[in-house]
Write a structure and sequence with these properties.
Strand content: under 5%
Distance between the termini: 26 Å
Number of domains: 2
Number of strands: 0
Shape: globular
Helix content: over 70%
Number of helices: 10
Oligomer: single chain
Length: about 190
């Protein structure tokens, strides 16, 4: 469902697809937080930044546990800085804080994937702020192959920018084709 929703011209179907399973979450606070996160993330992908910010303002983040603050508030604010305001240094700082607050024991279900996702989002921030080295790029390339579609889209975008900067035309075209095929209306990923 997400793959077809990403090919729509607006965020509505993606938001619906991401939010629907969360209505069954028994922990009401968790459900509220991740509904807000997924809704805001959908808006960001479609460059509906004001809508993403409006969704985030509806939640009283100070009353949420640190892990929820990280997973949602700081993460979304970091993406807004990466892709909207252009203050990538602030975005990277927020993403690092988000990762620190979200760190949990490796025994929790999904914790390894969450850790990899945060690492990828931090690496994207490093590339966007001009910190480039082969290790960062190699780590992102590996995570691209390991993570699900939404983080993979952001990773492809970060790698695409780096390949463009470094003149790696074949890899650049490969990531552009991936983004156009999987999220043709998410133009921010191709900037």
């Amino acid at each position: 469902m997400l793959t077809s929703a990403l090919k729509q011209p607006t965020s509505e179907k993606l938001t619906a697809g991401l939010v629907k399973p969360l209505h069954a979450v028994k922990d009401r606070q968790m459900g509220e937080v991740f509904i807000a996160y997924n809704t805001a993330l959908s808006h960001i992908l479609f460059e509906e930044f004001e809508s993403a910010e409006r969704v985030m303002r509806k939640i009283d983040w100070e009353r949420k546990i640190p892990m929820y603050q990280a997973a949602v508030s700081l993460n979304i604010r970091a993406f807004i800085h990466y892709y909207h305001t252009g203050d990538c240094h602030e975005g990277l700082s927020l993403m690092r804080k988000a990762k620190a607050l979200a760190t949990v024991s490796g025994s929790f279900p999904g914790s390894k994937q969450a850790e990899m996702t945060y690492e990828a989002y931090i690496a994207i921030g490093q590339l966007l702020t001009g910190f480039r080295n082969d290790e960062v790029v190699a780590a992102l390339e590996k995570k691209f192959d390991q993570l699900p579609i939404l983080p993979k889209l952001f990773i492809a975008s970060g790698l695409r920018s780096e390949y463009k900067r470094s003149g790696q035309v074949d890899k650049l075209l490969e990531k552009e084709a991936f983004l156009r095929s999987n999220a043709p209306y998410c133009k921010l990923l191709l900037k």
